[in-house]
Amino acid sequence: MSASTDPRNGASAEGEDHAPTHTAASPRALDATAPRPDTAPVAAEKSAQVGRLAATVERLREEVQAARNAADGRALIELAKGILVERLHCGPAQAARQLAELADQSGISELELATDIINQAARDHVTRIATDFVQATGGGPPGDSTTPSVAVSLRTTESAALAADDTQTVAESLLHHALAPLGVTAVAVWTAGHDGSLTLSGHAGFPDEEAERWHYVPPGVATAARQALTQRRTVRLSTTADGPPTIGYGHGPHGGRIAVCAGTGGRIHGVLEICWPQPLADHPPAVERQLEALAELCAHTLEALPAPPPGLTPSVRSSSARSSSARSSSVRSSPSDSELVDLSDGLHDAALVLRPHLDSEGRLADFRIVYANTHFQDPAGRPRSALNGSLLLETYPLAVGGSEIYSRIERVYATGESFRAQRMTLTTLVDQVPLETVADISISRHGHSLLMIWRIEDETARLASLLQHAQRLGRVGGFEENLVTGEITWNSQLFSLYGRDPLDGPASLRDLATRAHTDDATAIGRFLRTVLHHQRPATLAFRLRRSDGVTRHIRIAAEPVLDSEGRLLLVRGAYQDISAQHWTEVALAATRDQLAHTEQESAERSRLALQLQHAIMPPTHGPLEAPGLHIAVRYRPAETEALVGGDWYDAVALPSGQILLCVGDIAGHGVKAATGMVVLRNALRGLAMTGAGPAKLLGWLNNVAHHLTDRVTATAVCALYDPTTRTLRWARAGHLPPVVVRSDNATTLPLTRGLLLGALADVSYDEDDCQLRPGDILLMYTDGLIERRDTAVQESMTQLLIGAQKPADTLGQRLDHLLTYSKSDTDDDTCLIGIQVEDIGGAGTQRSSAVPSPAHAPAHE
C-alpha cells in the first residue's frame, strides 16, 4: 500500500489538492488564484477517489478488528459451553441453549456470562484479580455490573494471546482489550537476550517508523525496559522527558510509563512497557496486580512463541511468523540436561548442572543439583551420587545462602547474563566446622538450566605465578648447572637478561669471563674459584656484554650443592640486572659532589658575611662614654648563618658635642646585605661630621643608597642628642619609631614622614625633636625584635611596650629581658640600643668611638 492510500496518512493525502506556494515573481503564482478549467475537475476527481479509498481501508480495518474480537469472544463462549457440558452432562447444543437462556434471564451478554462461568470454574490468578478490582473500586459483590468488564477484558486478552501466532498480535490484544480501559495509549513487548540486549517483539500505539528505530537495543543502553531487567523490579517514570530514552521518547506528549518484568518461575523472558499520555498517577493495588498478570501472560507468550528474526520490525515479523514457526521453535528449544552433563564432564574444573525448583505457587524457591561432574569433590566427603537431585541451599547453606553467590545465580537465571568472578570465598560446613575455600566462579544459563563452574585456587600454582612476577619485577633470572651431567637450566627471564635466543640454549658458568667486560676478568676468576674450588657461596657485580651490543650491569649470586660424600654436584644461583641501580648510584654520587661544592661555597659566603659584620661592629672592651648618658647595645644575629642580614647600629660622639645615634636594616640577606651595611654605616659617619641635622643626613644617605650602591634599599632611624639641653632631634626612613620609657610608662615617638632609603632619588625627610628628662630611657631597634608572621605590627608594638615597662635594675638587664621574651619568629637579625639619661654632673669625658657589643654578650654600661 502506498503512502497516499494509507489511512494513517489520509489527512496529508486529502490535502494534496491545495495549490503549491510560489513567490510573487513567478508567473505560476499569478495564475494560482484561478485554476485552469481543464485541470480543476481532474484534481477534484483524484481527491474524491483518495477519500473513498481511505474510508474503505478504515472500514476494512474496523471489520478485521471486530472479527478478531468476535473470535476471541467465541473462544470464551465455547470454553464456557465445554464447562456446562461437563457439569450438566448434556450435549453441546443443549449447553448452547442453556447459556443463552441464563444470559437472557441475567440481563447480561453471553460473553459476560461465559466469563463468569470460566472464573467460577477456574478460580485462578485472573479470577482473584477481577474480584479484588471490584472490591477495591466498587466495594460490591462479584455480581455487580462492574465485574464483567474487568473479567471479560482479562479473559479476552488471555484468549487472544493463546490463539495468537506472534507477539505483535498479543501486544495489540493487550492494548485493545485490557489496557485501553485504563487510559493506556501505547504498549511495547521486549524480548530479553542472553547478552542483556532487548528486541522489540511486539508493539501497539507506536508508529511503524518508531518501532523500526527501536527494533533492537544493544546491551548496556539504559532504557526504561533495561532498568527493569537489570533491577528485576517494576520501573515507574513520571514523564519520558525526565527518564531514560526509550521507544516513543520525544514522540507526542510526554506522559507516564511503567516497565514490568515479564517472567515465570524466576526467569525473566522480557519486559512489558506500558505508556500513558498524561503524567503517571498512583494506581490502586488491584490495577498493579492486573498489570503484573498481563506481564506474566506476555512471559508465557514469549516462552511459547517462536523468536522473531532479528532486524525486522513487529509489522514485518507478523507476516513471516507462520512460515518460520517450526524452524524458530527448534532454534529456541533449550539444550537438554544430557547435553549439559556431557559438556560438564568435558571440563577440567568442578561443575554443577542446576535447574530451578519452584514452589506450589510457581515461584522460584531453590535450585536443584541435576549433575555434579567427575572433577567435583564435595568438601564434606559425600559421593557425587548423593548430591544429584538435592537442593542447592540445603546441600551448601553457608557456601551459597550465606553469601552473594545465590543472588548471582538467581540473576543469571532471570536475565540470562553470565556471571564471572575471581577469588570468591565459599564457606562449607563440615562436621559443624566452617571451612573456607577460595575459588573462581563462572555461572551461565543454557535454556532452562544453569552451568556453575568453580576453579579451586591451587596454592602451588599461585605461589609459582607470584614468584614469576617477582622475578619479572626484580629483573631476576635463575639458573642451575649440573657439573656431573653438564645439563644447564635457565628460566625465561635469564634468557631475556642475556639477550640470548632460547633456541641457542643456556651458557655455562665457566664461560662467564668471555661474555663480560675485560676489566672484570680478574673479579670473575676469584668468583669462580670461590664457588667451584673452595665450594663456598659468592656474589659478584660485573658488566655483561650482550650479543646485541648492549652492556648491562649484572649481579650474580651462586651457591654450590654437594652430594652426600661432599663432592660438588651442581651450582645454582640467580642473575639480577642492576643497571638502573648502578646509574642511579652514579647520579647520586655526582649529586653528592655537587652538594658538597655548593655547601662549601655557601660556607664561604657566610664566613665572608660574618667578617663584614665584624668589620662594622668590631668587638670592643668598653662602652661609649658621654655626658649624662648610659648607652647599652644588644645584637642578636640570625640563627642560620645563611641568613646573615644587614642590621646595623652606631653611636658616635661628634666634634660638636652631640651624640649620633642610628639603627638601620638592609633589605635581604647574605653578602650583598653585609656590603650594603658597610657602605651606609660609614657614609653616615662621614656625613654626620658636617653638623647637619638628622633629616638632612637621611636625605644625603638616601642618595648614597640610590646612586652609589647596587640598588640597596634599607630602613633607618637617625637621631642627634644634645647633652647640654637633653634635646633629641630625630628622623626616620621607613623604620619603626623609637620608644621612650619614662617612670615605667613606655610610649612610641610620633611617626614622621620618611621613605625608605634607596627607593627614589632626592627624597626629603621630616624631622622632630623630643625633650628628655633624667631617668628617661630611649630604645632604638630593628624589626627583628617584634616581627611575627601571624601578628599585625600594631599588636607586636603593644607587646613591646608592655615588655619595656617592666622594671629592671640596670639598662642592660632591661635590654636582655626584651631580647629573651621577644616573640618574633622570622629568624632575622636584631639590633637593640638603649640610652638612659642621667644628670649632667655624672657625665664623663667624651670619646669619639663606636660602642658595639659582642654577639649574645651584654655591653658594658
From TrEMBL:
Spell out the Low complexity composition-biased ranges.
314-336
Residue span, ANTAR domain: 57-118
The lineage is: Bacteria, Bacillati, Actinomycetota, Actinomycetes, Kitasatosporales
This protein's name:
SpoIIE family protein phosphatase
Q: Which CDD domains match?
A: PAS
- Biological source species: Streptomyces typhae
One Pfam family of this chain: SpoIIE
Q: Which residues form the PAC domain?
A: 538-590
| Stored SUPFAM superfamilies | CheY-like, GAF domain-like, PP2C-like, PYP-like sensor domain (PAS domain)
Which PROSITE patterns does the annotation name? ANTAR, PAC
Q: Which UniProt keywords apply?
A: Hydrolase, Transcription, Transcription regulation
- Region Disordered, as annotated, extends over 1-48, 305-341
> Mind listing the GO molecular function terms for this protein?
phosphatase activity; RNA binding
Q: Which domain of life is it from?
A: Bacteria
